[in-house]
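Write out this protein's structure.
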Amino acid sequence: MKTVHTTPESLFSALWQDYITRLCPSADKVHDLLEENEALINDHIALRTFNLAPIGLDTLAKPFIELGYKACGDYLFESKKLVAKHFEHDDPSLPKVFISELKVNECSPQLQGIAEQLVEQIDHDDLKAHEFLYSGRLWQIDSEDYQALAQESEYASWLAAHGFGANHFTVSVNQLNAFDEVKQVNDHLRVAGFTINESGGEVKGTPEVLLEQSSTMADKVAVQFADKAEEIPGGFYEFAKRYPMPNGELYSGFVAASADKIFESTNG
């Protein structure tokens, strides 16, 4: 692994190719349904990791920071034992980046043991280039350990099975010509056969908190474990509408209560 991207655009392009190939093949269909005479604008992507050296949140953030991104917000998800940060570029046309990590030390001894065993398999040299962000799984795991993780933390089992990659991209509803509201996007996708994440309501957030979000439920994708292949939830597609702050600029942060429910788009 030697790829070091020199522009944010090339890094996002590589992340996108991994996302539509390995995690969310239905993303092309979403594009066909929503794209009208102009490219969709990606509001943000999200990445997951464990808070274990050498793959903590800061390690995943480093390639983005090297390309001009800055940390802009901190978030806590107590029930899921997660912390997160979001990052923005000075160029507002570039997507935001939302990175979360599981507080492994707050989980059961069994989960801690499995997670540590996975991370021990990583070749540290693989983390020196940007390519690891979309390289998938840098370890082997069997289906039994996957199921053990899933019983305690869906987040942990997803990360253990898929490794590194964007679990979602996000269509900016503000930029769409055919739809003004998140609910309209949901209805359009339902007609086309997509299942919308209903956890916490189909639209998470309100104009009052300056952000509304929704998402599809994750695609089922084939994953090869050490002992067998299984179909499990992969990536999903999100839709976000941002509202102006008192100064007239669109709100650029995230709402923890809403993000908490978006995480559940990968529930089986």
